[in-house]
Amino acid sequence: MDGTSNHNSNSNPAHIILIPFMAQGHMIPMVDMASLLASSGAIVTFITTPVNAARIRPIIDRIENSHHPVRFVQLPFPSADAGLPAGCENIDLISSPDLFKSFMEALSLFGEQVKLYLTTRNPTAVPADCIIFDNMNFWVGAVAESLGIPHITFYGPSCFYILCAHLLKKHQVLKSIDDDYELFKVPEFPEPVEVMKAHVKRWVDRQGWEKLSEEFYNTEKSACGVVMNTFEELEMLGLDKFRKEIGKKVWPIGPVSLANKDLDSKAMRGKASSIDTGLLLSWLDSKAPNSVLFVSFGSLSCNSISQLVQIGQGLEYASSSQLSFLWVVKEADNSEEVENWLSEFEERTKGRGMVIRGWAPQVMILDHVAVGGFMTHCGWNSTMEAIAAGVVMATWPRFADQFVNERLVVDVLRIGVAVGAKVPIFFVDKMSEEALVKGEEVRKVVEKVMTGGEKGEERRKRAKALGEKARKAMEEGGSSIENLKRIIQSAEGENKHLE
């Protein structure tokens, strides 16, 4: 779809290319970013693949019907050339750990498709002024530089995590630590928190990934600036330190989930819901304010049947009969054993609990007045959605940035309670027994988050206050909206170079 935004009086608006990483948690914030940039005056081209476009088809339709100048381009993904099964175009479709590296290598081949599109097949005939790319797309730097297009990194995780990773690499800290579970402080970090080696290792630094690692860091260095799904008021100290460290523009533009203002857009964010939203809202409407715990662990993390049983016990035996729960169990899709246990569990907790099998409209749920707590894997999208909704969290990280995000939520912002998970579980790995969290621990955390006495009330007040700041950041004149405008102004600059 061509055209210009109604909000833009510039006859020559900036044309910004968005290239998300092919994972649901990375696609979602970039779709929101496309809407935000287009409504702020840019022309946007969003590049993805057929399988990923099909997943977000309702969102594509909604954006196209809004007449914002966003073009969705589908380019073929070279699954077969990289030794992947046909249609393996998203990391949640990777069936074994061995295929993860093959998938990452396939991204370089996809980069050739993107370069071809930008040079010979771009139907807009509008030159690209800049590319905003997910930092996992390590190949973008070489493509953008070969075409002379400025490129900006989009970091999906928190600034808290990105700064932590930057400082650890700068000081080579991990080389001197042998114990994966030894607590240590990060040099120069502006917050007094401690982390563990097992929780801060980056996927790109593993053995055998040296070539990909070099490309990854080269692309980070060559980027003109950084965009983040956070806001100035949330991570002020970290953002200030990170800007000084990298010497580049850093634009926080979040929470991007707040781009979805009406009920329909909240309900379809990500992909189509697995439950009728009318039925879901009716159930939530029947519950008292702050009485429902929402339990969801993101699009990638999976629980073993043993862990599901322990979670179920914790939810079932939480002491207050006034507490209800809404639990997303995507594992039911692939296991008869899980489905059989789940059916019995639902019968025992009828009226008090609801189970969603598959994808849930998370933003819509968190925004409901009945929801008073969120048990989460601490993926940054989920964390930001909870912050935007002013909801306290029970934190249960699994891998990547999630353990560091937990430290931000629990130790710095003080709006969460840790379940106590310690052992990382990569999304393609089976959950080990040592990673199991017992039902009694789950029960204790549920009660602390949902009631928790005076400390619980203080947590809830802090969460509500942060929610207010998040909403103000995304209003006209707010810090995030102003940063969006600065990105576009930079792309529209006299020499089309970012300032």
UniProtKB/TrEMBL annotation:
Protein family:
Belongs to the UDP-glycosyltransferase family.
The entry lists its GO molecular-function terms as: transferase activity
Question: Which keywords does this chain's UniProt record carry?
Answer: Transferase
Q: Which Pfam families match?
A: Glyco_transf_N, UDPGT
Its name, as the record gives it, is Glycosyltransferase N-terminal domain-containing protein
* Transferase in keyword set: yes
Q: Outline the extent of the Glycosyltransferase N-terminal domain.
A: 16-256
Bias-annotated ranges (Basic and acidic residues): 454-475
Q: Which domain of life is it from?
A: Eukaryota
> What CDD domains does the annotation carry?
GT1_Gtf-like
Q: Among its keywords, does the record have Phosphoprotein?
A: no
What residue ranges carry the coiled-coil annotation?
none
Residues of the region (Disordered) are 453-478
